[in-house]
Amino acid sequence: MKERKTKTICFTNNKGGSGKSTACANLAYELSQAGKKVLLVDGDMQLNLSLSFFDEEKVLEMAESEKNLYYAVKGKKDLKDYVIATPYENLDLIPSSTLMSQIEYELFTMMQREYVLKKCLKGIYEEGEYDYILMDAPPTLGTWVINILCTADYVIVPVEASPWGLFGLANMFDFLRGMDEMTEAKVMGVLITKVDERKNYYKQTREILSGYESIHVFDSSIHVDTSIEWAQDASVPVGVYKKSARSAREFKELAKEVIKYGSR
Questions:
Q1: pTM for this prediction
Q2: Residue 130: which domain range?
Q3: Which CATH number belongs to the domain containing residue 132 in this structure?
């Protein structure tokens, strides 16, 4: 079988507050700046990925329309018709909806419910327009996350460098291993986020993660940076808000790692 040009990466962690949406949004921006064509899929009802590129008024407008991920999946529609351009070259988005809170119920009534999203993306894959599709999954381990994982080639697991950052990570990996027969998605790596050099949690987190066999930990890590919060407040990637910010440089390095990994 011919290898698909488009690489799909799922950002997932069953623990909230890991910096998942932030990492997904900013990696996508840096990949697009590196000349890669990227499609973002906002799979979380919290809309944070969409809010990373559009102001609240626009995001709510998209969420309340029928041109969002919820209605596409509910109706088993071709997602080609739900793509919107972001303000940045090479970077598109399929927006989310607060109605995604109901998606588990909608999927429950469908045949082959684990593969609905994959079928919705078939047209986009066939066109081969994108180098990467990045998906932001909600912090759960239900049928909807299974849908996202069944579509993915790779998984990135953001982990917060904090006392509770690793809580539930073993369950996350057990869940991924239990899906071996349903998906070929590989864990590309663990991304350590919210690093504060004044505290010892970063070193502890790396040491604990080194104990997981066959799990790659990215060399890049994302430090606590007020520029991230200001960028989020302005609904722009941190590399747009302040190109010289430490976190902007770190996301750029992460993009290099991801491109290198995907070309192996």
A1: 0.94
A2: 7-259
A3: 3.40.50.300
